[in-house]
Amino acid sequence: MFNSLSDRLSATFKNLRGKGRLTEADVDGTVREIRRALLDADVAVSVAREFAAKVKERALGAEVSEALNPAQQVVKIVNEELQSILGGQTRRLNYAKVGPTIIMLAGLQGAGKTTLAGKLAKSLASEGHTPLLVAADLQRPNAVTQLKVVGERAGVPVYAPHPGVQSDFDELTGDPVVVARNGVSEARQKQHDVVIVDTAGRLGVDAELMKQARDIRDAIRPNEILFVIDAMIGQDAVNTALAFDEGVDFTGVVLSKLDGDARGGAALSVASVTGKPIMFASTGENVNDFEVFHPDRMAGRILD
Ligand code: GDP
Predict the structure, then answer these.
(1) Is the per-residue pLDDT at 284 higher than 80?
(2) Which has the closest alpha carbon to 152: 137, 133, 168?
(3) Do the beta carbons of residue 288 and residue 127 sit within 8 Å?
(4) How many Å lie between the centroid of ligand 1 and the Cα of residue 81?
(5) ipTM over cut 0.95
(6) Which residues bind GTP (predicted)?
(7) Which atom of ligand 1 lies at the shortest distance from residue 284's CA?
(8) Which residue has better confidence, 228 or 20?
(9) What is the pLDDT averaged over residues 23-50?
């Protein structure tokens, strides 16, 4: 990911090398190239424009450092702006002070929620936490089974709708709000310190899906609502992210499928338009393909 953006930016910066001072025309030309490179990387138009404007303002401003030549100065500004757009500092999970930390996952169908649930659970377990996975995606016939498989691979127990629990025994007609609530109760009873609730996604954003997600949220009051988004969806990322942000007011973003050949624009756009930090990255189908997202490292990688 970001390879072509990275190449384009370094070519742009190369043109500045050896210049003693940057004229306004130099800055204009550079900023135009940066904007084009962002657009070609699928960054949303409004985000690319705003980014370019900020870089221009700072590059023309009075931030002159003795230690850096003009080209290095521009690289530094772009680095800082990239980092800022990607969420600034690495954002850690917000743990509950009392009782289990409740993490709810939201996103479109196929975004990678269920896969992510297993990865996150495994990662937390390896840090000494005792997570419970809750299968509250009752929309997709296979989702509950899939989460059970994922849980097995992660070595983490799964609370799934099962016979004997009223209104929750039939996974296709059961009520996901009830399942989510029961799952959290189970976590409390069995003293799990983290509970990860997988919820249903649809192929597109729709009002019913959003209401269901909101109802689950209101029933379990999560400490974190992670919005999982497929990095490959490119320009659609902005509208999807805004709809989920408005719908459930998520607290953090997880980028999935970063191992693919996504051009990376989704990452920058989503973080920028929602102002929510990217917290984790999913980088493959395997349960271990998971990373904490570090904005500074990602910015560094883009500008490498
Ligand atoms: P959900 O509908 O949001 O729960 O999405 P799933 O977790 O079922 O993922 C949808 C598909 O994407 C599955 O085939 C996953 O194996 C695949 N997938 C999920 N995360 C990743 C990832 O990070 N990289 C790759 N290459 N595939 C992924």
Answers:
(1) yes
(2) 133
(3) no
(4) 30
(5) yes
(6) 107-114, 198-202, 256-259
(7) 24
(8) 228
(9) 91
